[in-house]
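Lab manual, section 2.4: Encoding a predicted structure.

Procedure: take the sequence of the chain (173 residues), apply the prediction step described in section 2.3, and record the output as C-alpha cells. A sample record is shown.
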Amino acid sequence: MSIEPDAPYFLAGPYPEPTVLEVPEVATVVNVAADYPLERMREVFDATFGALLPVLAVHGLQPVGPAFSLHRRMPTETVDFEVGLPVDRPLEGPVGTDSGMVLRPSRLPGGRVAIVTHRGSYDGLGEAWARFMDAVASAGHRPVLPFWEVYVTEPSPEADPAAMRTDLVTLLA
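Recorded output:
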C-alpha cells in the first residue's frame, strides 16, 4: 500500500527513532477493559476483534487504520485499556454484541505526541517502552497519559515475529 504524504501518523512511518508529531484526534470504536488482569490481556484482544468488524459493517463504519490499544493508567497487576480500530466517523453510541460485549465510541487523542516503531514480537514491547520513555525524557519531553500501541502489522499465525511492526505512542505535556 502506498502512503500519501499527508497520511495519518498511524499509516505513515516507520519511526526508527523517537519522533515528535502534532496529530489530530481520531474517532475509534473500542472495547473497554477496566481493572483487567494484565496476564489475560490477550483474551480481550481476541474477543474484541471477533466482534468488531461485524458491528462496524452493520453501522456503516469503515476502519481507517490498524488496530490499537490505548492505556489510561500505568499497568500494574491489572490494566485499564481500550482495544479497537480507528474509523471514518464516530459511532453514535454504545452497541451490544451477540457475545454480550459492549463496543463504544471513543477517540485516539490529538495533540503533541512522541512515537517510535518497535520491530519484533510482542514479547519485546516492555523493553521497547522502557527505552522509548527514557529517550523521550532524555530529549526534554514530558510524557503524560494516555499512551497507546498501534499494531501496524496484523498478527496472524503465519506472521514472522521478527518482522512485526508496533508503533508506540505517548501524549506529551
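Check your result against the sample. The CA atoms of residues 84 and 157 lie 20 Å apart.
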